[in-house]
Amino acid sequence: MNTLQQRRQFIRNLVLGGFSLYLPACKNTSDKKPTVKNLPPPKTKPEIEKEVELIEEYFESANVLFLRAKDDGYIKANTGFNLRVPKNPKIIALCKNVDGIVESIKYAKQFKLQVGIKSGGHSFEGFSSNNGGMSINLSLMKAIEWIDENTVKMESGVILKEIYDVLLPKGKIVPSGSCAGVGIGGLTLGGGYGLFSRELGLTCDSLLSLTMVDGQGNIHEAKNNDELLWACRGGGNGNFGVIANMTFKAHKAPKTFTRHLFKAYKLDQTRALDLLAHWFDLTAKLPTSCFGAYVLNYKTLTVLITDMGNKIDTIRPLLTSFGDKMDKTTIGEPETDIAKSLKRYYGIQTPLLFKNACAGLYKGFTDIEKPIAQVVDLVQKNNGLIYQVNTLGGNINTPAFEAVSSFPHRAYSYMGELQAYYEKPEKGEKLITAFQKIQNIFTANGITAHYRNYPDIDFKNWDTAYYAQNLARLQKVKRKYDPDNLIRHEQSIKGGK
Ligand SMILES: Cc1cc2nc3c(=O)[nH]c(=O)nc-3n(C[C@H](O)[C@H](O)[C@H](O)COP(=O)(O)OP(=O)(O)OC[C@H]3O[C@@H](n4cnc5c(N)ncnc54)[C@H](O)[C@@H]3O)c2cc1C
Predict the structure, then answer these.
(1) Disulfide: which of 147, 259, 303, 345 matches 178 by Cβ 3.0-4.6 Å?
(2) Please, what's the b/e burial string for 297-327 (b: 16 or more CB within 10 A of its CB; e: otherwise)?
């Protein structure tokens, strides 16, 4: 008998043995002896059997499997990508379909369990789970269905490599991130940027409709101009309900993909700063088909420029001139096997110990000119710390996208990112202290806008940092769909006033 069967047997014995019938008596604090008239009538056999059935349903129904800490599968379902922030929910609800989500929400409501939602489990701060509540786990919900050749519907448990595997052979993409294990659920609901977003917009800009189970267990379909769809395009992470599936516009995949790579070694502070200023100059001139990243890892700088539009003739002079300042330059050739090209960015797929967060959204170099020397100094004194700047801008900043989405930061063309990786927890302490110092330096210098999908538990005004001018409108959506705040994590939207 496995653990689940043992537990079902235990529950059957418990209920049939009548233990639950004693519970109301425990609550009776009055000295007055209950009269026969006050006692509930004894349960009939069919009633008891129905009760067993109901309780069993809570543990495994056709729609959901509930796991507790001792059950087989709990540890696997519980492990998130970031080992720095372990969580221990009382129940993991492994949902098989929308009805399973409804059952889970109703169970959580009945037993007053806080609900977290896990699609791909890649939250930097472990926001998909909690201690002592319920984590609704969507990893079994992975259907991908073509509605027509330009429209694709996915369940939220699908991860990015699974999307590329299905879409690329049909010559299609949904613009998203590049790391293989990131979930389409969390990625889209917080925005979603990547190698294609300056050309095609954020992932949430291709979101056409969705199905959500709200904090009361009601199912909603959101499409067209629905306020819920607006809210979920950038503000939907673990806030209003569980998004069960989403339908996206599928775009034509690029015919070619080109990668240009630059390296500089043993950098002192002056050179690191000089190259950063040049990187901003370079990327400001790139066409929307290009993505750029400046990655300062201790004293080594890597610069990546990718191009989904085969614009090498236009950009070669820019790349050559930038390359002259670096130690090693590789100007790439257009590659036609897009799947192979993208696999290069799949990254590590097993859980890690790390701290990663947004280090501010910037309009240009001038935004960080004042504090950046201090930042680079700290990075170069702490081997293991990485400061990265990624390009946004391009068609992300399209008024038509802005009008229908709650992602509030389209005017920023760049995003800073801090990362610290370490193998043992004790090694993280020093890095995280330096990490926090850098975040404080940015804040003190007016860098206060941040990307919701790169959260930092230490951000003081995280709600305005993530949602800016859209916060009050999002709070209204929260009040409508989850008035009891059942669905929550450390940085979920509160209903406000
Ligand atoms: C290695 C790595 C690479 C990354 N690369 C990129 C990148 O290229 N571009 C980018 O934009 N971001 C990137 N991110 C950040 C990523 O977008 C976020 O971590 C995202 O929230 C992860 O989604 P998930 O479903 O995997 O995570 P989860 O941990 O499952 O969920 C993250 C958050 O979303 C909520 N959520 C998840 N699913 C649902 C749902 N179905 N309904 C309602 N709420 C839900 C959770 O409550 C939680 O708050 C990366 C993260 C990592 C760790």
Answers:
(1) 345
(2) bbbebbbbbbbbbebbeebeebbeebbebbe
